[in-house]
Structures are given as structure tokens and as C-alpha cells.
Amino acid sequence: MHEVYLVIAISVLIGVLVLLKRVISGPTLMDRILAVNVIGTKTIVLLALVGFMAERPGFFLDIALAYALINFIATIAILKYLEARGRPKTADEEDDA
Amino acid sequence: MTPSLIVSYVGRRAIPFIQLYALYVLGHGEDGPGGGFQGGVIFASSFVLLVLIAGWARARKDAPESIVDPLTATGCLLYAGIGFICILLGGAYLEYEAFAGANATAAAKQHAHHFALIGIELGVMITVTASMVTLYFEMSRPPEERNAPEDGSGDSDGEGADA
Prior knowledge:
heterodimer; A: mainly alpha; B: disordered C terminus
């Protein structure tokens, strides 16, 4: 059964790598924020899988749950900050400026 | 600037569950990840979420200085108090077994240990929550609240943090 968890974990990690490319290359700020948010969601799945691999699911699911709550607040905080600073320009508007 | 309907709806419903989860983390500190400090930080994060969805002034009304500041010391008092009660009962500082009495059974001693441990963890949680909430409120204080007296009469329309 461990092999199944391992394969799923590795495929989730490949997904994280793909998203990391999106975080680095952009092109807009919103793409980056969304990609970081999805990486956070994947981390929760990864934590649950590691918990089952370590045969202590209760222990790791607690951490995953805390991570989910904090990740939610962090994303709202970043978006709130951007909203207060002014809406980020779209690619078209940046061309006009 | 009105907060998004979705954000405020989801946030309002998430806050009670975050606080409940903080208490779960506190209670399971012995045989899982967590304890007083982690539970306190998670509890304080619910107040951060409250500031984000309701605005600074509205959130400060739910956690006023007159309540949060004394709580910072109350947690320390609870921790140290349990420690000193152990001395008064004839044990060492924070020797929880003293609660069970001098010639108690092993099971009773373990029982006393559990309850006293939860007590000091609760003290840690209260102090950490109050400190974190105070830190966050002071760091995010909007400019128009900076010199205002703390009586809740300032910005009462809940838009203070957005200006």
C-alpha cells in the first residue's frame, strides 16, 4: 500500500513543480497568487499522504488541517493588501501606460 | 471599499471553526501535535481573519484593550499560580503529582498530572492569544486611529482598515 501513496505523492510533487514555474514566470501578479494558493492546497494533500506513509495519520492530519486554515487567511491577507494598494494593472493597461 | 460578499460570508463561518480547532489543538497537546502555544496562535489567527473581513475598528470592539491586555497577564498568573500551589501542597514547583496528595495511588497521581498540565497549557494559550492579538492590532492600526482614545467611539462603521 505504501507504493500507492508514494506514487501519488510524487505526482503531486510534479504538480507543485509545474506550478512553481507559473509562480516564477507570472505573467501577472494574480497568476502568481493563484499558483501559490494551489501549491498550499497540494501541500495539504502531501501532508495527509506523508501521514499515511508514516502510519500516524491522526498526527499529520492535524497539521494539515491547521495548514489549511492558515493558508486561507494568508491568501485573503495578500489580496486585501493588494486591494488597499490599488488594483494591479492588466497586461493591456500596462501597454497603454 | 466594501469587503467582498464571498470573503465576508466564508470568513464569518470559518472563524468559529478556527477557534474550535484551536481548543482541539490545546486539548490534544499531550498525544498529538500542538499544545498551548500552537493553540493560542491558531486562536489569534481567527482575530486576524476578523480584522480582514470586518475592518480594524469593528474587530477592536470584539477584542477591546480593556479585556485583551489583562488577559496577557492572566495566563502568566494561571501558569505560575498552579506552580506555586504545587509548592503549597508540599511538592516542588510545577510538580503536578502534589495535587493528588502525599499518599495517593499511581492512577490518582496520573489524573492530577493530566489536569494540572491542561491548566498550565490553558495559561500559555491565554497569554499567547492575547499577545498575538495585541501585536496584530497595534501593527495594523490605521492612521486615523493612531491618536484616538480607546473608547470605541472612533470609526464605528467598520471601514477603518480600508481607508
